[in-house]
Amino acid sequence: MDYLEAYNFWKTNEFFDSSIRTELNALDPEKDAKEIEDRFYRNLEFGTGGLRGIMGAGTNRMNKYTVGKATKGHGNYLLDTYGADACKERGVVIGYDTRNNSEFFSRTAANVLSGMGIRVYLHAHACPTPQLSFSVKFWNALAGVVVTASHNPKEYNGYKVYDEFGCQLVPWQAKQVIEYVNAVTDYRSIDFTSDDSLISMVDVTDNFVNAVLKQSRYENTAAKADLKIVYTPLHGTGNVPVQKALRLDGFTQVEAVAEQVVPDGNFPTVVSPNPEDRRALELGIAKAKRVDADIVLGTDPDCDRVGIAVKVADGEYQLMTGNQVGALLMNFVLNHMDANMYSYPAVVKTVVTSELGADIAHKQGIRVFSTLTGFKFIGEKITQFEQAKIKGNREQDYDFLFGYEESYGYLAGTHARDKDAVVSSLLICEMAAEVKANGKRLLDEMNEIYTEYGYYRDALDSFTLKGKDGLEKIGSMMTELRASGSPFAGTKSVTDFSTPVAAEEGFGTLPTSNVLKYVLEDGSWIAVRPSGTEPKIKIYYSIKGPDKAEAEKKLIEIQDTIQAKLGLK
């Protein structure tokens, strides 16, 4: 049926809840024609990242029925893949964040799965996404689901699926689940009646925090006690596990931003709960000035990303980028590595992450792997390493130390298969405590690294193009770039990840992805990719120069070139 037929079906059929029908009947077919089209012109896509979209009534929205469709498809996949007995014995772990409707959607998924005869371990309260990843292995489950839209605006929610290793589905796995989800063509076939005997309410917060504490790298208790920390969970799930981990590790001066501690899916104190945005940390920075803190930490609603602001010489606070923090953590983790523990140590980054962290690892003789964008690919590498060790496959047998991506996501240890802002907060504070004990600040440490390895100016431009027209325009932009060659002078190579690209030796090829990367003769690079979860086109820049001023000048020139090429200026 076309979008108008689907709209009329949803607003009149009594299978759909009265709240859904009321919302749709409030729309005017003439005045709200574009809105109706956007709600129904397609089914909300279950892609490699699961579901993510605006909440509301319609096939292209996050609601009880689109969540039910995804869950029924996923459940059918599990039953066919593992069998009814294994599904009833091992089951699925479900977690959720503090967003509006997250708890409701998680319960919806639990009802559908249990009604299919699949055991469910449902988190008793909102929890971080990395805790969900940890929980899958903790319960020896077949799969995991977390209801979250990470750092997106309050109108959004999402649904991510994890495999039995606690790793978000990668493309070859997602493709199989997608086929099952797409096979659910009639929403009326979804049974929302639960089997409560198969649903267990669980809480593994303490187990998760204990696993995080095993990644502690710095034992100077006096230095930890001397560090003044301001922390904000941005109304999300991080408050309890982050503060508990820091205090158990010996940090005694942790001040929380009271206005942002309360879980609230409306995120009333911020424009967007994104720690990459300085505005999200404004209350934290204001508090830091009042208490003369050394560092400000802010985690996003599902606590998988963390942003920081550090005190500078004049008493002001400066935000650090994801690439900067990643390079600092790389340096810290490797400098505190017990080499006797690892036979073949390795670190992992994504293809749109700065090469600075890789340079640090290479200097210490550590193997570096690069993956496509998305932490699931870093998680997949951890699983590959572990499975190779079990099978005696030396070609893929490495010991994972650290992984990160430029978008404020980091992981040390293998307790999770996703970026983890709890363990990252712990290590960032240990690193800051050590630097302070040595009479320096984190920015001093960063500048010393730049002096040794060269200056990197990293940036990200993100352009939102909403609706059906926006998605079509993004598609045409990528088509035009592929057809016209590099727009940059001094281009050394162009890599189109939409065709097979060789991975590291022994690992075949990377999955295909809609990414173009331009590498310049001076080592700088630019990458362009549509977001997989939002109506955005993203342009990544990693510009290398002899100093900050030269790199900044070069960045501006390159930004002007690519934005003019795409018609975004």
How would you sum up this structure, described in words?
- The chain is α/β, with parallel strands linked by helices and 569 residues long.
- It is globular.
- Strands 1-5-4-2-3-6 form a 6-stranded mixed sheet, with helices on both faces.
- The mean pLDDT is 95.
- 40% of the residues lie in helices and 20% in strands.
- It folds into 3 domains: 42-186 and 194-203, Alpha-D-Glucose-1,6-Bisphosphate, Chain A, domain 3, CATH 3.40.120.10; 206-453, Alpha-D-Glucose-1,6-Bisphosphate, Chain A, domain 3 (3-Layer(aba) Sandwich); 455-569, TATA-Binding Protein (2-Layer Sandwich).
- Helix 11 packs parallel to helix 17.
Q: Tell me how many strands there are.
A: 22
In the CATH hierarchy, the third-tier topology of the largest domain is known as Alpha-D-Glucose-1,6-Bisphosphate, Chain A, domain 3
The CATH class of the largest domain, by name, is Alpha Beta
Approximately how much helix is present in the residues? Answer: 40-55%
The span between the termini is: 39 Å
Shape: globular
Question: CATH superfamily of the largest domain, called what?
Answer: Alpha-D-Glucose-1,6-Bisphosphate, subunit A, domain 3
CATH architecture of the largest domain: 3-Layer(aba) Sandwich
Largest sheet: 6 strands, mixed
Strand content: 15-25%
**What is the mean pLDDT?**
95
